[in-house]
Amino acid sequence: MGINTLNGNKNGKGAVVEIKMINDAEALDAAMPESAKIAVPEAPETEVHPQPETEKKEKPRSKKRLPLILAGLGVGAIAAGTFGYHYWQFASTHEETDNATVTGHVHQVSSKIPGTVAQVLVNDNQQVQPGQLLVKLDPRDYESKVQQAAAALENARGQAQAAAANIALSSETTSGKTTQAQGDVSNAIAAISTAQAAVQEAQAGIPAAQAAVQEAQAGIPAAQAQVAQTNANLERAQTDYNRYQSLYQQGAIARQQLDTAKAAYDVAVAQKNAAVQGVQQAQAKLASAKVGVAQAQSRLAQAQQGVTSAQAKLAASRGGLQQATAGGQDTSVKRSQYEAAKAAIAQAEASLKDAQLQLSYTNITAPSAGRVGKKTVEVGNRIQAGSPLMAIVDQDNWVVANFKETQLERMKPGQPVEVKLDAFPHQTFTGRVDSISPASGAQFALLPPDNATGNFTKVVQRIPVKILLDQKSIQGYDSRITPGMSAEVTVEVK
User: Fold this and answer.
1) Alpha carbon of residue 115 to chain centroid
2) Do residues 468 and 79 touch, judged by C-beta distance below 8 A?
3) Eight-state DSSP code of residue 141
4) Three-state DSSP state, 474
5) pLDDT, tens only, 447-467
6) Phi then psi for 251, rounded to 5 degrees?
7) In this structure, is residue 357 part of a structural domain?
8) In a domain, 166, yes or no
9) Of the candidates 42, 53, 46, which has an alpha carbon nearest to the alpha carbon of residue 21?
């Protein structure tokens, strides 16, 4: 192992560079055993030539740079310490987060009634004032309803006048109504007698119809037995015919015997058809008998209904007689009708006001001052009640900062706040803490977590903090700050 050292010696004639080689290979070689020694070829001798005059004038710089490096490290350490101290002081008295956004009032504008858009009087991003007309719907349908309500009001007033006139006429018509009511009572009694006789007649016809049903039901089994017998005869005749036909083809019998078997088979077929028709006729007779029973029962029901109707007419006639007899009561009824007519007038007036209110809804106005955004309505659109048309965004903005729950220990309303918006990175706004949310953002989510399921994992939650901006600090930017902008918030909690 060799170490080269450079020594600079000065004399009157200049600097001379002397190269010294300190070689400890011999000592190492002596300590090693003979078996571990490796023959190394000797290096050729080299001559040392003196360096040129220019190289003799160079001086080593390492000793001059060391103080500068140490001084730089010291200054850096002091700067880092100062920065760390100030950062510690800042971090101990401030809480900050970049999970914050600008929030504001966004008023959704929609229609209270369905209709067709006739005019759209604003454009996107336009400034509007409260009550300013934004959209106008086609009013013709609602104008027609106003006219109908006005006509209904006039009709109700006319009916009230007629009811007032009937009060004076009620006393004059009492005698005539009494006579008519007595005649109605007599007619109702006669109708009851007639209906009761019809009931008795209908009741007498039901047993005969039921007997016909039983007779028809008894004929069906016999007809079905005849069908079974004819089926057996037909099978036997068909078997004989097939056998004779085979024997005839073999030449064992004469043609006459085959024809006789064929005739017997045809007769059996005809008998079966006749038996089937007999069953059908018996079933038709049974159906006809059932229809007769149903008709008899229907006539009985109609007769009973006639009795009920006649009794109802009798009751109505007696009521009319009592009403006609009590002339004073009729006058009270007329007065009640007059009161009902006045109530109808009030109802018609309310309907007219409602129609006029619906007509006023054809003019859609701005609910507050602000700028128009998200305008989707166009002329000619057919809209429904509640359909979003546009939004009005006012200039009353604030910041919602979502701090970690571990940052809220010393945070309270009224503390000063610094806000930096990504839209204006070179401007710092001031404000104050207004309030802290009563629950974390996860609790207000559509599907809040249920920590009682046994799958609980502790995660640091975010708590929304509402921050109000100072109006003086946002002066000149109030119309440029919009909801949804990202923000960085620093709260002084000391």
Assistant:
1) 23
2) no
3) H
4) coil
5) 887 777 777 778 899 999 999
6) 80, 20
7) no
8) no
9) 46
3-class secondary-structure state, position 43:
coil
**Which DSSP symbol is given to 116?**
E
Q: What angle do CA 37, 43, 49 make, to 5 degrees?
A: 150
d(CA 460, CA 452): 17
- Mark whether 85 and 115 lie in a shared domain: no
Q: What's the pLDDT band for 223 if we cut at 50, 70, 90?
A: confident
Check: CB of residue 417 under 8 Å from CB of residue 392.
Answer: no
pTM of the model: 0.50
Same domain, 300 and 263: yes
End position of a domain, from candidates 304, 330, 356: 330
Q: Following DSSP, what letter does each residue of 262-277 receive, concatenated?
A: HHHHHHHHHHHHHHHH
Token reading at 385: 């009640």
Give the span between the Cα atoms of 75 and 192, in whole angstroms. Answer: 126
Q: Identify the domain containing residue 482 by its residue range.
A: 97-137+369-492
Mention every residue, 6+ apart, whose C-beta is less than 8 A from residue 433.
Answer: 411, 412, 413, 414, 415, 417, 465, 466, 467, 491
* SS3 call for 137: strand
**Res 93 pLDDT > 80:** yes
- How far is it between the farthest Cα atoms of the chain? 172
